[in-house]
Fold this protein.
Amino acid sequence: MSRYPLHLDLTGRRVLVVGAGAVAARRVRSLGDADVRVVAPDVADGFPDVPVERREFRPDDVDDAWLVLACTGVVDDEVAKACDERRVWCVRADDAAASAAWVPAVSRVDDVVVSVTAGGDPRRAVALRDALALSLQTGDLPLRRSRQAAGSVAIVGGGPGDPDLLTVKARRLVAGADVVVRDRLAPVVEVPEGVEVVEVGKTPGGSSWHQRDIEWLLVQKAREGKRVVRLKGGDVHVFARGMEEIAACVEAGVPFEVVPGLSSALAGPTYAGIPVTARGVTQSFAVVSAHLPPGDPGCTVDWDALARLGGTLVLLMSVGRLSAACAALVAGGRAGDTPVA
């Protein structure tokens, strides 16, 4: 039997549900903003908070309905007959083969709706739906729009560089992007054909994009109607200037969202087998940028306070200034035999 798939906008339209058991409850919860009317002599515990007429079904109950869901297992034949006579679509919960319409297994991922039927086998349909939804959520299926919509910016923490450490949401956003603006230390990820990738990474001692130019690019691409992913290394707010890019979007009136990422300040020690906290050893840790060395006029780090603090210190951007940082810590009172990795 050939069936025509269709998505209905039931907002404000009358939907009659006959029955108030567990199946009817699931159907009612999925009806959103429909005008739901329930007719049933008995109501199951935990039934949704909608009006219920506690009586037996009458054929004229169908008269003002756009759609009818028969969920009794007792009078579904009578309900279906009344619907056929009035040319109203009826979904029967008791017998898929006899039902004029089916309710698919549904999942929503962002603005993508997956609806699956499987020859009247609901468990098979649910299994297929779940597999498709997972692939959409993890960015394994194409999500990029072919029709231009309103532009936006997603400022995404890409983690410490390993693509396997991208969050599920980050993968999904990359899969749907028109433009990916990538940092030098962000993970290298595959993007669909036709996606523009702009490398804006800052190279120490080499040529680099100015931060204001990056912000202009994000805003400009979004104003062109593009979905922009700003893929940053680590987390967006750990020495990554994410706040400046957010401010640029706010000032320009560009819609944006922020997706956290795994910082190398935590991932690096973990990969090296070094816990930043350990029972009986240290109950605290601090993450510090050593981009500017101790004594530099622009440095705001209180090295003496860090030396007294104890706990684990994680120094980022410190390779070229490690000697100066260690000397400042020892001068502030940190033990000279403190283990270093």
About this structure: The CA atoms of residues 157 and 232 lie 5 Å apart.
